[in-house]
Amino acid sequence: MSPTRTRNRRRLTGIAAAALVAATVTPATLASAAPSATVSPGTVAPGSRVTLTVDGCDSSSARASSRAFGDVSLSPASRAYGFSGSATVYRDAASGSYPVTFDCGSSGRRVTVTLTVSPGAARGGLGGSIDSMSPGRIALGGTLAAGALGTGIWLLRRRWAHAR
What we know:
The chain has two helices and eight strands.
């Protein structure tokens, strides 16, 4: 056997051994990792909706519960071992911090995060989408919209004039 072939065989054997070790260790590492959860947004007014997400549940079901909104069944998400859902915070919820407990079904794994309820009513209307708009930005947007409208009218009139 040539030295090059022996060297290549040793390299392949080493790579195969490393891949076997990685494949053996990775599932154990993932299985022992605690689930992670989020409540979005983290601060809400009474009556607002929140999105609940938990990853790392190695079970077929998951639930979230809190004194702020009760008990909610979560649906499987597109991510592996992920679940998501939404809940509406009670309209009469007092302001303060509320623990939200995510329960990973048959695996018995749990994780708790905090939801903050702020005083005041839920924001309606535009939902604060124009809070960061300056008069300059509004003027620029209006100018661009008027320019686009004017260009469209000019092109249509030109086409109509040539069609006669």
